[in-house]
């Protein structure tokens, strides 16, 4: 491909509305263009990257035994109501009416559609297991599109669904997808970490996320530096600390304190001159429609996923002020655990306190010197809060670190959540009708592109990993009007393309400085410079994008040397991927 014939509208300046590095560089490198909030056109260079990501995904999914299909993006609302997810996700659905009055939605995901397909086609255990996947455009009515292609309203996703007869088959299907994902991200050159995750509205009781560490990542990863434990913040467990000192049997009774208009923890602490860690906040939720309460230390944040699990609920939503007043008889802002009548769970950090400041369950009143276990029961003490840096690891007790990350993949064991709701059953060996057991596996294709840039760039532009680069080699003839220079460049181009290398030639009549800046900006891995002076000396300049300095190779053998280097790099990357796969298998004891 010749640059003069391509559409690569590079930009010198940083776009005003771009914040994330990947967003800035994709725009400046002429790879994407925004059409509207959360909607982007992939220009030819960017589309080549996207296509290479899709190729890697498709090869690994096919190798895993999964079968590719393509399902409609347009989905009947009735299916969402049938699965029970319509009320949970209706705000994210792009809904429309077709055919006069038929309510439809543009699919953000395809659990309902694929379950409907399987219930119609799979009748016997002999047809199981089967894993189906697609690579398709999805739509979500994202209220705050941002960070370029990381959070959009229209995006490309690989979603797969396994259907199994029993838990043994499900575990095998899950492991196959887990390994396929590792190979995909290894081949894409991403520095990912696999973390335990919360399933959320998708459902299921076991899931893992694949995260790429990144300062602008919207997910939080909690990691142990010693034993390798890792989880997203929604799921991260907190290890036990040393037992608190025994409480004095003669502790005085708690004290009622007037706290006019001090509703927040910060206002209360400023008024009473105490630290937030000496207070506790009582939060009221509706768990499957029933009021429950959680008591969290004042300096901690409640983890709603943990609270939902603590009460065995399918759905958890914060209660409004009127609901709180009716359920507890107390006003919001002054709630406390003493004498509360609704089910209460207490975080261990509160249970460990000798005494604590809590709400007094009446307006403008708090209680000082409240003793956990004496003044309110400790019969449901459970981990209810977000983990923070320095919390002990639940596996080995080492202090954990907290970092941000970009989620690029997620795998779930769904169980029978959808098959039971939608009647997807099969006949087992005894002729009994049994719900199919499902798994779900998603990859954000656009997110891989962005994550690769966030992980691979410098002040000059993108540094693509070889498997994702739009072109592997960039040829830069410095004097395009010089017949000898162009003849050498064209001969080299033909030789490299004959060896099946992806080659872009910058044949523009531009100053060398402009060409070099654009070369660094678009990030093609191997830059080859052909100039008058070098040819007179019998050399051509070669430089890998990630190297600090260039090298000179013989012009006579440059083609063979470049082909050899690219092939050696491909082979090394493939070897690393295989070695990691072997190491993972060894870690699982296989």
Radius of gyration: 29 Å
Strand percentage, roughly?
A: 25-35%
CATH superfamily of the largest domain: Bira Bifunctional Protein, Domain 2
Helix content: 25-40%
The low-pLDDT segments are none
Structural class: alpha+beta
The CATH topology label of the largest domain is BirA Bifunctional Protein, domain 2
Structural domain count: 3
Note the overall shape: globular
Q: Main sheet, how many strands, which sense, barrel?
A: 9 strands, mixed
Termini gap: 46 Å
The tally of helices reads 16
CATH class of the largest domain: Alpha Beta
Walk me through the structure:
The mean pLDDT is 94. The chain is of the alpha+beta class and 590 residues long. The strands form eight sheets. Strands 3, 7, 8, 9, 10, 11, 12, 20 and 23 form a nine-stranded mixed β-sheet that branches. A five-stranded mixed β-sheet has the order 27-26-28-29-30, with helices on both faces. It has a four-stranded mixed β-sheet with strand order 16-14-15-17. α1 (21-28) packs across α12. It is 30% helix and 27% strand. It has three domains: 15-190 and 410-454, Bira Bifunctional Protein, Domain 2 (BirA Bifunctional Protein, domain 2, 2-Layer Sandwich), CATH 3.30.930; 255-370, YbaK/aminoacyl-tRNA synthetase-associated domain (YbaK protein, Alpha-Beta Complex); 471-571, Anticodon-binding domain (Rossmann fold, 3-Layer(aba) Sandwich), CATH 3.40.50.800. It is built from 16 helices and 30 strands. A hairpin with a 6-residue loop joins β11 and β12. It is globular.
């Amino acid at each position: 491909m010749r640059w003069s014939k391509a559409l690569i509208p590079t930009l010198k300046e940083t776009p005003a509305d771009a914040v994330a590095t990947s967003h800035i560089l994709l725009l400046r490198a002429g790879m994407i263009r925004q059409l509207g909030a959360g909607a982007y056109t992939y220009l030819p260079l960017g589309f080549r990257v996207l296509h290479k990501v899709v190729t890697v995904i498709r090869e690994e999914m096919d190798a895993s035994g999964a079968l590719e299909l393509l399902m409609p993006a347009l989905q009947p609302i009735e299916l969402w109501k049938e699965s029970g997810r319509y009320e949970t996700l209706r705000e994210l659905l792009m809904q429309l009416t077709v055919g006069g009055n038929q309510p439809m939605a543009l699919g953000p995901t395809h659990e309902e559609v694929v379950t409907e397909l399987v219930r119609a086609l799979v009748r016997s255990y002999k047809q199981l297991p089967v894993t189906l996947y697609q690579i398709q455009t999805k739509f979500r009515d994202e209220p705050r599109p941002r960070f370029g292609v990381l959070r959009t309203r229209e995006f490309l996703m690989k979603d797969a669904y396994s259907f199994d007869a029993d838990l043994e088959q499900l575990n095998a299907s899950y492991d196959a997808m887990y390994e396929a994902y590792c190979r995909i991200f290894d081949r894409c050159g991403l520095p990912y970490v696999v973390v335990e995750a919360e399933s959320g509205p998708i459902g299921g009781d076991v899931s893992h996320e694949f995260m790429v560490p990144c300062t602008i990542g919207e997910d939080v990863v909690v990691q142990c530096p010693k034993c390798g434990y890792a989880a997203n913040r929604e799921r991260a467990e907190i290890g036990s600390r040393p037992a608190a000192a025994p409480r004095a049997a003669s502790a005085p009774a708690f004290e009622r304190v007037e706290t006019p208009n001090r509703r927040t923890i910060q206002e209360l602490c400023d008024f009473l001159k105490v630290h937030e860690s000496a207070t506790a906040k009582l939060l009221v939720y509706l768990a499957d429609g029933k009021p429950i309460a959680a008591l969290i230390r004042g300096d901690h944040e409640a983890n709603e996923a943990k609270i939902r699990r603590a009460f065995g609920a399918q759905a958890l939503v914060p209660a409004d002020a009127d609901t709180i007043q009716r359920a507890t008889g107390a006003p919001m802002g002054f709630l406390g655990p003493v004498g509360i009548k609704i089910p209460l769970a207490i975080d261990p950090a509160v249970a460990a306190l000798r005494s604590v400041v809590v709400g007094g369950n009446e307006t403008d009143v708090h209680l000082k010197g409240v003793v956990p276990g004496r003044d309110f029961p400790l019969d449901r003490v459970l981990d209810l809060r977000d983990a923070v840096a320095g919390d002990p690891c639940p596996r080995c007790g080492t202090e954990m670190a907290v970092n941000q990350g970009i989620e690029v993949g997620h795998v779930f064991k769904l169980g029978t959540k959808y098959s039971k709701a939608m009647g997807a059953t099969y006949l087992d060996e005894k002729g009994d009708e049994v719900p199919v057991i499902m798994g779900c596996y998603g990859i954000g294709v656009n997110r891989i592109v962005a994550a690769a840039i966030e992980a691979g760039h410098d002040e000059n532009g993108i540094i693509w990993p070889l498997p994702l680069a739009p072109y592997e080699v960039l040829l830069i003839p410095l004097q395009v009007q010089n017949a000898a220079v162009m003849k050498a460049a064209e001969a080299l181009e033909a030789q490299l393309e004959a060896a099946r290398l992806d080659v872009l030639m910058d044949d523009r009549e531009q100053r060398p400085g402009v060409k070099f800046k654009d070369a660094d900006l678009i990030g093609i891995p191997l830059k080859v410079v052909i100039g008058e002076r070098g040819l007179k000396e019998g050399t051509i300049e070669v430089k890998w994008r990630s190297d600090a300095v260039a090298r000179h190779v013989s012009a006579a053998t440059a083609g063979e040397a470049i082909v050899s280097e690219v092939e050696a790099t491909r082979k090394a990357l493939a070897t690393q991927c295989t070695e990691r796969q072997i190491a993972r298998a060894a870690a699982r004891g296989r």
